[in-house]
Specification:
By secondary structure, the chain is mostly helical. The chain has one domain. It is about 80% helix and about 0% strand. The protein has 10 helices and no strands. α2 crosses α4 and α3 packs parallel to α7. The longest helix is centred in the N-terminal third of the chain and has 33 residues. It is elongated, with a radius of gyration of 19 Å.
Length: about 250
């Protein structure tokens, strides 16, 4: 499959997944519980992050025009990076505090599409909770380090302000895809290396799936409302991509 085809397939799966999630009363009920918590966390991260960028990129009265322009571009890039990164950090924070919320939405959406497969996954013991939390902390640290690196790149005059948000979009899309698929990976008892391998094998499709959610979730206040729908859409992604055998072979058994 060509890279562009993978991106298109991933994006189309995301759109169909949203339709699936919104059509199910069970998914909607579970979705409300997830969104209520995520809304508060994501909004707090947005506010704190934007304030920090605005504070750190303030200029002085004696700055030249090019210094002022550089600070404006840096401020725009920094705020963009914050808005892109905050949804993933919020989702991981909530998953750590309430580890079963995402799983409940995922399984509810799976039952709509394939009750038999949902029952199989629900019956699996999955990874130990301690291992799930440890892996999530490692992923979060890795994401933070990458995001800080991208923010540092944005300090490169002109070029950095353009390249950094694009690179952050890619990093966030991969991280968000990983987070949305974590309930599935957990049920299969895949360790962190195994999860990374699956994502690498389906790199373009998973990024294409996550990108629409990345941009919508980056919208302050309104973005968190999409969290539950994205988690529900992940069930369709599992069935149509990871377990279909049509892309890189079936993952689940």
């Amino acid at each position: 499959m060509k890279p562009q085809q993978g991106l298109v397939l991933g994006a189309s799966t995301a759109m169909r997944g949203i339709k699936l999630a919104t059509s199910s009363p069970e998914v909607r009920a579970t979705y409300v519980q997830l969104v209520a918590v995520l809304f508060v966390v994501a909004t707090a991260l947005d506010v704190l992050g934007v304030w920090a960028v605005w504070h750190w990129t303030g200029g002085g009265a004696g700055d030249s025009w090019w210094q002022t322009l550089a600070l404006v571009l840096l401020r725009i890039a920094g705020i963009g990076i914050v808005l892109l990164a905050a949804p993933v950090l919020a989702l991981r924070a909530v998953d750590l505090a309430f580890p079963l919320l995402g799983e409940r939405v995922f399984l509810a959406a799976m039952r709509v599409q394939s009750p038999e497969r949902a029952a199989q996954l629900a019956a699996m013991p999955g990874l130990p909770l301690s291992r799930t939390i440890a892996d999530a902390l490692v992923r979060t640290l890795s994401f933070l380090v990458q995001s800080i690196g991208v923010f540092a790149l944005s300090f490169v005059p002109v070029v950095g302000a353009v390249v950094a948000p694009v690179l952050q979009t890619w990093i966030t899309a991969r991280a968000l895809a990983w987070e949305l698929l974590e309930p599935y990976f957990d049920k299969l008892a895949l360790d962190r290396a195994g999860q990374a391998r699956v994502l690498d094998e389906h790199r373009m499709v998973s990024v294409g799936f996550a990108v629409p959610f990345v941009f919508v979730m980056a919208v302050p206040l309104l973005g968190p409302l999409m969290f539950g729908l994205a988690q529900g859409a992940a069930a369709l992604f599992v069935l149509d991509v990871l377990e279909s055998g049509g892309s890189k072979g079936s993952v689940g058994t």
